[in-house]
Design brief:
The protein is mainly alpha-helical. The protein starts with 7 loop residues before the first strand and ends in a 7-residue tail after the last helix. The protein contains 17 helices and 2 strands.
């Protein structure tokens, strides 16, 4: 027997077909709307985006077919500058919207939010792409204006990138002439115009190194690696700078990373071996010893070794770790149980 909250009719064969529990469905929709309103209050009145997101999540769970709740959560992510989450949410909203015949204005809004994410990260090319997709769904004065502005910003960026290359080439020219200070100045101008070019940081690191400004060379090497963790020269520059700063164990790590990225690199192999040999020198800089001793990984190994001496054997298979442990042992900072 069907309950009072269910609709029933007889089919052609006399079977009873029980429809969805309409009152229950309406109740969930109403509850979802309440969660949305609570989210809106947190977002608009208190700028409490985390709380807003929690309420929007509940609304989505209650009514997963309504694109509006996903758009609201995307807006909260955008407000927190959680761009990847915002983009992911918008793409999910577009999918849900397509499947449930959502208003094209809502689909357009999702594309616009994605465009805003890229614009805020100064990726105007991608921003323009998504603004145009938004326009294709629903053209408004607002989106036309945003497309125009993003286009202008993209033109400015492209102009700056071209000038950055010009400055980089000027720097290269002065470097070849042995005028390293002038090279540094032009590399600096190139970086101002394109701070995402790892190779320019590598080039400036080389110029600083030539002037024996090893800390500056190290800083630029680290920035180069941050921008492109696969760029071998960045690790070679870092290793050379650390070596001159008498930080042998760290230099060995940099050269070892270069070897991992390019096993055929002879410079990385030779310099790594030199650093390992020098790391075992009893006359090594006391500050270097302290750096080694305070490394979290080394501390963990020492703790394990005290509990189980044989555990050291597996760590000694890594030549960098072996060199560090040898330095600590020869300088009396550790003992083998």
């Amino acid at each position: 027997m069907a309950s009072k909250s269910e609709q029933v009719f007889s089919g052609s064969q006399g079977e009873e077909t029980i429809y969805r529990r309409v009152p229950e469905e309406k109740s969930r929709e109403a509850e979802a709307l309440r969660e949305k309103e609570l989210g809106n209050d947190a977002y608009q009145k208190n700028r409490d985006f985390k709380t807003a997101i929690k309420h929007y999540e509940k609304a989505i769970e209650l009514d997963p077919k309504d694109i509006a709740y996903r758009l609201n959560r995307a807006a909260a992510y955008l407000a927190q500058k959680e761009f990847d989450k915002c983009v992911e949410e918008c793409k999910a909203a577009i999918k849900v919207g397509r499947e449930n015949n959502a208003d094209l204005k809502q689909i357009a809004k999702a594309f616009r939010f994605i465009g805003n994410c890229y614009k805020d990260q100064k990726d105007y090319e991608e921003a323009l792409k998504y603004y145009k997709l938004s326009q294709s769904e629903c053209e408004t004065e607002e989106i036309v204006k945003m497309i125009k502005e993003a286009g202008k910003q993209l033109e400015e960026v492209e102009k700056e990138l071209k000038q950055s290359l010009v400055e980089k080439e000027k720097g290269n020219g002065f470097f070849k002439q042995g005028n390293f200070q002038q090279a540094i100045e032009h590399y600096g101008e190139a970086i101002k115009r394109n701070p995402k070019d790892a190779k320019v940081f590598s080039n400036r690191a080389a110029a600083y190194f030539k002037l024996e400004k090893y800390q500056e060379a190290l800083d630029d090497s680290d920035k180069c690696i941050e921008l492109d963790p696969t760029f071998v020269k960045g690790y070679l520059r870092k290793g050379a700078s650390l070596k001159c700063l008498k930080r042998m164990s760290e230099a060995a790590e940099a050269y070892n990373k270069a070897k991992e990225l390019d096993p055929t690199n002879e410079e990385a192999k030779a310099e790594f071996d030199k650093c390992i040999a020098e790391t075992g020198d009893p006359q090594v800089d006391p500050e270097e010893i302290e750096r080694i001793l305070n490394e979290p990984k080394i501390q963990k190994i020492i703790k394990e070794m005290k509990a189980e001496p044989k555990s050291l054997l597996k760590h000694l298979q890594d030549p960098v770790i072996a060199g560090k442990m040898q330095t600590l042992l020869e300088n009396g900072r550790i003992t083998i149980p």
